[in-house]
Amino acid sequence: MDARTDLGRTGEDAAERLYRTNGFCIVERNYRCKAGEIDLVVRRGPLVVFCEVKARRSDRWGEPSEAVHYAKQARLRRLAAAWLADRRPGSVDIRFDVVGVIVRRDRIEVRHIPDAF
Question: For the chain, which residues make up each domain, given as ranges?
Protein backbone atom coordinates (compact mmCIF):
# COMPACT_ATOMS: atom_id res chain seq x y z
CA MET A 1 0.00 0.00 0.00
CA ASP A 2 1.33 3.47 -0.79
CA ALA A 3 1.55 6.46 1.55
CA ARG A 4 -1.45 8.19 -0.01
CA THR A 5 -3.66 5.13 0.48
CA ASP A 6 -2.43 4.83 4.08
CA LEU A 7 -3.22 8.50 4.69
CA GLY A 8 -6.73 8.10 3.29
CA ARG A 9 -7.37 5.00 5.36
CA THR A 10 -6.12 6.75 8.51
CA GLY A 11 -8.47 9.67 7.83
CA GLU A 12 -11.45 7.38 7.27
CA ASP A 13 -10.63 5.43 10.44
CA ALA A 14 -10.59 8.68 12.42
CA ALA A 15 -13.93 9.78 10.91
CA GLU A 16 -15.44 6.37 11.65
CA ARG A 17 -14.36 6.64 15.31
CA LEU A 18 -15.91 10.11 15.52
CA TYR A 19 -19.26 8.87 14.24
CA ARG A 20 -19.26 5.75 16.44
CA THR A 21 -18.50 7.92 19.49
CA ASN A 22 -21.53 10.04 18.59
CA GLY A 23 -23.89 7.07 18.39
CA PHE A 24 -23.89 6.44 14.64
CA CYS A 25 -23.74 3.03 13.00
CA ILE A 26 -21.42 2.63 10.05
CA VAL A 27 -23.64 1.52 7.19
CA GLU A 28 -21.04 1.47 4.47
CA ARG A 29 -17.46 2.50 3.88
CA ASN A 30 -16.12 3.24 0.40
CA TYR A 31 -19.37 2.69 -1.47
CA ARG A 32 -18.48 2.56 -5.15
CA CYS A 33 -20.55 2.86 -8.28
CA LYS A 34 -19.80 4.03 -11.81
CA ALA A 35 -20.17 7.69 -10.72
CA GLY A 36 -17.50 7.47 -8.02
CA GLU A 37 -17.12 6.70 -4.32
CA ILE A 38 -18.65 7.78 -1.02
CA ASP A 39 -16.16 7.58 1.83
CA LEU A 40 -18.65 6.88 4.63
CA VAL A 41 -22.37 6.31 4.95
CA VAL A 42 -23.50 6.38 8.57
CA ARG A 43 -26.88 6.23 10.27
CA ARG A 44 -28.47 7.17 13.57
CA GLY A 45 -32.19 6.48 13.64
CA PRO A 46 -33.84 8.01 10.57
CA LEU A 47 -30.79 10.16 9.77
CA VAL A 48 -28.44 8.94 7.04
CA VAL A 49 -25.21 10.90 6.65
CA PHE A 50 -23.06 10.87 3.53
CA CYS A 51 -19.56 11.88 4.56
CA GLU A 52 -16.63 13.06 2.50
CA VAL A 53 -13.33 12.59 4.35
CA LYS A 54 -10.29 14.67 3.40
CA ALA A 55 -6.97 13.78 5.01
CA ARG A 56 -3.74 15.72 4.77
CA ARG A 57 -0.37 15.67 6.50
CA SER A 58 -0.50 19.40 7.28
CA ASP A 59 -2.66 22.47 6.90
CA ARG A 60 0.08 24.23 4.93
CA TRP A 61 -2.24 24.70 1.94
CA GLY A 62 -5.39 25.26 4.01
CA GLU A 63 -7.86 23.10 5.84
CA PRO A 64 -8.49 19.69 4.26
CA SER A 65 -12.23 20.43 4.15
CA GLU A 66 -11.58 23.35 1.78
CA ALA A 67 -10.88 20.76 -0.93
CA VAL A 68 -14.58 19.86 -1.00
CA HIS A 69 -15.53 22.45 -3.59
CA TYR A 70 -18.78 22.86 -5.52
CA ALA A 71 -18.00 20.15 -8.12
CA LYS A 72 -17.15 17.63 -5.38
CA GLN A 73 -20.35 18.54 -3.54
CA ALA A 74 -22.41 18.00 -6.69
CA ARG A 75 -20.73 14.63 -7.26
CA LEU A 76 -21.46 13.56 -3.68
CA ARG A 77 -25.13 14.49 -4.14
CA ARG A 78 -25.28 12.31 -7.27
CA LEU A 79 -23.54 9.48 -5.47
CA ALA A 80 -25.97 9.77 -2.55
CA ALA A 81 -28.90 9.52 -4.97
CA ALA A 82 -27.32 6.39 -6.48
CA TRP A 83 -26.79 4.90 -3.00
CA LEU A 84 -30.39 5.62 -2.00
CA ALA A 85 -31.70 4.05 -5.24
CA ASP A 86 -29.41 1.03 -4.80
CA ARG A 87 -29.86 0.39 -1.06
CA ARG A 88 -33.48 1.61 -0.63
CA PRO A 89 -33.28 2.47 3.08
CA GLY A 90 -36.92 3.59 3.28
CA SER A 91 -38.01 6.98 4.56
CA VAL A 92 -34.90 8.73 5.87
CA ASP A 93 -33.53 12.19 6.46
CA ILE A 94 -30.22 12.85 4.76
CA ARG A 95 -27.27 15.07 5.57
CA PHE A 96 -23.94 15.76 3.93
CA ASP A 97 -20.92 16.09 6.23
CA VAL A 98 -17.26 16.77 5.68
CA VAL A 99 -14.58 15.48 8.01
CA GLY A 100 -11.15 17.03 7.64
CA VAL A 101 -8.27 15.09 9.16
CA ILE A 102 -4.71 16.26 9.63
CA VAL A 103 -2.33 13.39 10.36
CA ARG A 104 0.76 14.73 12.09
CA ARG A 105 3.66 12.69 13.42
CA ASP A 106 2.49 12.88 17.02
CA ARG A 107 -1.29 13.32 16.72
CA ILE A 108 -4.37 13.23 14.53
CA GLU A 109 -6.60 16.31 14.35
CA VAL A 110 -10.21 15.77 13.30
CA ARG A 111 -12.53 18.59 12.25
CA HIS A 112 -16.15 17.63 11.66
CA ILE A 113 -18.45 19.88 9.64
CA PRO A 114 -21.98 18.52 9.99
CA ASP A 115 -24.50 19.58 7.33
CA ALA A 116 -21.62 21.05 5.35
CA PHE A 117 -23.68 21.65 2.20
Answer: 3-62+72-113
Fold of the CATH domain 3-62+72-113: Trna Endonuclease; Chain: A, domain 1 (3.40.1350)
Full 3-state SS string of the chain? CCHHHHHHHHHHHHHHHHHHHCCCEEEEEEEEECCEEEEEEEEECCEEEEEEEEEECCCCCCCHHHHCCHHHHHHHHHHHHHHHHHHCCCCCEEEEEEEEEEECCCCEEEEEECCCC
Per-residue pLDDT tens, the chain, 117 aa: give them: 677 789 999 999 999 999 999 999 999 999 999 999 999 999 999 999 999 999 999 999 999 999 999 999 999 999 999 999 999 999 999 999 999 999 998 899 999 999 999
Predicted TM-score of the model (pTM): 0.94
